[in-house]
Specification:
Layout: H1 57-60, E1 74-78, E2 90-91, H2 93-99, E3 108-112, E4 122-125, E5 127-128, H3 130-138, E6 142-145
Parallel strand pairs: 1-3, 2-4, 3-5, 4-6
Length: 146
């Protein structure tokens, strides 16, 4: 079989609808736009959300809450996630990103104490919980805040 032997399945390819090419085509005269009205006119488009003059749903429904534009994105890492690093390694933002524990856009990193740590690590993060700090230091590791 060669490329010039290939053809699409029968009836799998539809022809484009050609409007405004005479009454005999079936798509002539009003060109499938119906009679009169805004959608029949040239340039007559209706903006999304317009409901014919009725109060639109986005204005009828009550609004709640707000979006804090000053919020900080804080990535959360648990102690159990640090088990993928070898003993006495330095765990910083770059190491966490390369391990897939922190995404590229997340700014600060907070270490939480869920799980256990069996060997010493040097951890450099922005924030750390009290239990996480105690567990790392009891394993012989060190916590440095940035």
């Amino acid at each position: 079989m060669r490329i010039h032997d290939l053809s699409p399945l029968e009836r799998s390819r539809k022809n484009r609808k050609r409007v405004g090419r005479g009454v005999g085509s079936g798509h002539g005269r009003t060109s499938c736009r119906g009679h009169k009205g805004q959608k029949a006119r040239s340039g007559g488009t209706i903006v999304p959300g317009f409901e014919g003059g009725q109060m639109p749903i986005q204005r009828r429904l009550p609004k709640r809450g707000f979006t804090n534009v000053f919020r900080k994105e804080i990535a959360v890492v648990n102690l159990r996630d640090l088990s993928r690093f070898e003993a006495s390694a330095v765990v910083d933002l770059e190491a966490l990103k390369s391990a897939g524990l922190v995404r590229k856009g997340e700014g600060e990193v907070k270490l939480l104490g869920k799980g256990d740590l069996a060997y010493p690590l040097t951890v450099k993060v922005d924030r750390v919980s009290k239990t996480a700090k105690e567990k790392i230091e009891s394993a012989g590791g060190k916590v440095e805040l940035l």
